Amino acid sequence: MQDESRPGILAQPRGATSGATSPLRPLHWLALAVLGLTGAAFGIAPESTLDMPPLRTIERALPLPELVPAAADDAPYWREERVQRGDTIGSLLARAGVDDPGAMTFLRTHAGARPLYQLRPGQPVRIATDEDGRLAALRFVTGAGDLLAIERAGEAFSSTVAAAAETVRLTLKSGVIVSSLFGAADAVGLPDAVTVALAELFGGDIDFLQDLRRGDRFSVLYETRHLEGEPVGTGRIVAAEFENRSQRFTAFHWRDADGQDSWYTEDGRSTRKAFLRSPMEFSRMTSGFSLARLHPIFRTLRAHKGVDYAAPTGTPVRATADGVVAEAGVMGGYGNTVVLRHHGAYSTLYAHLSRFAPQLRKGTRVRQGDTIGYVGATGWATGPHLHYEFRINDEARNPLTVALPTAGPLPPESRSAFFAHVQPLVQQLALAREVATTRVASRD
Question: Which of 76, 80, 81 is nearest to 130 (CA)?
C-alpha cells in the first residue's frame, strides 16, 4: 500500500512496482553510481527539468598579498590556546605541549608576568615553542587592553607590556523582523549597541514602538574593533538599510573636513530629522493624541494634546531636537515638566518626570538625544509614564503624524567624494538584501 504521507515526488505510481522491471538505462546506472559514492538520497521526477537560479557576477578589487621571506628552519612554532574554565597558566602551557621548568619558574616569580594569573575563560593566548618543546615566546592581551609579550633569549626570559595593535574591520549583518527589532538582531548575532544605534539612525523616519511589521528587513555594515585579532568592541555604523512597510530607508556615514560625523541617504539627503519621533528609545504607547479622551482621574471627556508612553520609573527621557530649556519645574497637573524651545516656531513638552537631569536649568542648551529627565508619576498621573507634546506656534500637534523638518543636505563641495565613497557600500547592502530575501523564501 502506498504511503500517503510521502511527498509525491518520492512516491511511485502503483503500477510501477508490479510486473516485470524495466531494464536500467545507462544514465540510470550513472545516477546509481553517484548515489552510491555520495551516500545521498533524492528523487527527480521523470521527464522533468530543473529551473536554475539566475546567476550574478560580483567583481571586487582585492589587494595582492605581500611577499614575505620563508621561515627559517629553526623558527619557533606558534599555536593559539583558549583559556578554559579552571585553567591555570601551567595547565594551559601543558595543553600547548610546553615542557619547560625554567619558563614556569620565570612566569611564577617575575612581576611582569602577573597578568597571566588573571585568566578569563575564552581568552586567547598565543604560544611559541622550539623543536625541543621549550617556551620560545608568549603573547597575551591583558584585561586592560595591553599586549604582554614574554621572550626567550638563550636561557633567560624577559617581559614587556605595550599598547596592543588595534585594527578595525567591517561586519555586514542582515535580518528580518518576526516579533521585535531586538529579537531579529539577536537571531543574526547583531550586538545590542549596534541595534540601538540602528534604531537611533532611522528614528526620525520609523517609530520603532508602533511602525514595525512582521517581514520588515534590515541590513547594517558596522565597524568591529580587534586587538591582536580578537574582537573587543564595536564602532560606528558605516552603512545601513531598513525596509519598513515596503518603504526602504538608507543611511551612509560621512566624515567632513572638520571631522564631524553625519549620515546621508544614497542621493545626499541628510537622514537626521530635526526632531525624533519618540522621546524614548524603547517603550509602549498607552494613550494617543485626541481631542476628546476620557480622563483616567476625573472621568470626563478632555482633549489629550500629547502622547503617553508607559515605562518604569527612572527610564531616561531624551530631547527630541536641539533646543533651549524654556521651563524646568513643577507645572500643575503635569508635575515635574521640561519645556524646550527649538528653532522657528517649534517647542516640545515632557511631563510627569520623577526628576530632572543634573545641571538642567532654564536657559540650558541641549542637543538631540540628550537625557533631560527620567520617567515618573508626578502630577495627575495614575502610574509611571511620560506625557510628550509637540507644538507649533504653541499649538499642540500629533507628534506621530506631523511632518517633521529635516536637517540640511550634503554640502555641494563634498558630493562627488561622497558618491564615490558610497557606491561600493550600496552594492554590499544590495547583496545582503538578496541574501535575506532568499533566506526568508527558503524558510517559507
Answer: 76
Cell readout for 360 is 538642567
Cell 531579529 belongs to residue: 184
Read out DSSP for 104-173?
A: HHHHHH-GGGGGGGS--TT-EEEEEE-TTS-EEEEEEE-TTSEEEEEEEETTEEEEEEEEPPEEEEEEEE
Amino acid (1-letter code) at residue 166? E
* Domains annotated on the chain, with CATH: 77-163 (3.10.450.350), 166-273+407-444 (3.10.450.350), 284-397 (2.70.70.10)
Q: What is the DSSP string of 207-267?
A: -TTTT--TT-EEEEEEEEEEETTEEEEEEEEEEEEEEETTEEEEEEEEE-TT--EEEE-TT
- Dihedral sign of CA atoms 90, 94, 97, 101 in order: positive
Range list of β-strands (E), 280-411 = 284-287, 290-294, 301-304, 307-310, 316-318, 323-330, 336-341, 346-356, 365-366, 371-375, 385-392, 395-397
Q: Residue 327 in 3-state DSSP? A: strand
pTM as predicted: 0.51
Give the three cell numbers for residue 291.
481631542
- DSSP 8-state assignment for residue 37: H
Cα separation, 222 vs 232, in Å, equals: 14
- Collapse the DSSP code of 94 into the 3-class scheme (helix H, G, I; strand E, B; otherwise coil) and give the result: helix
Percent of residues in the chain assigned helix, strand, coil, to nearest 5: 20, 35, 45
Closest CA to 218 of 428, 441, 433, 426: 433
Give the tens place of pLDDT for each residue, 209-229. Answer: 778 889 999 999 999 887 766
Model pLDDT for residues 324-365, shown as the tens digit of each residue: 999 999 988 899 999 999 988 899 999 999 999 998 999 999
**Bridge partners of residue 135, in order along the sequence:** 129
Per the DSSP assignment, residues forming a β-bridge with 354 are none
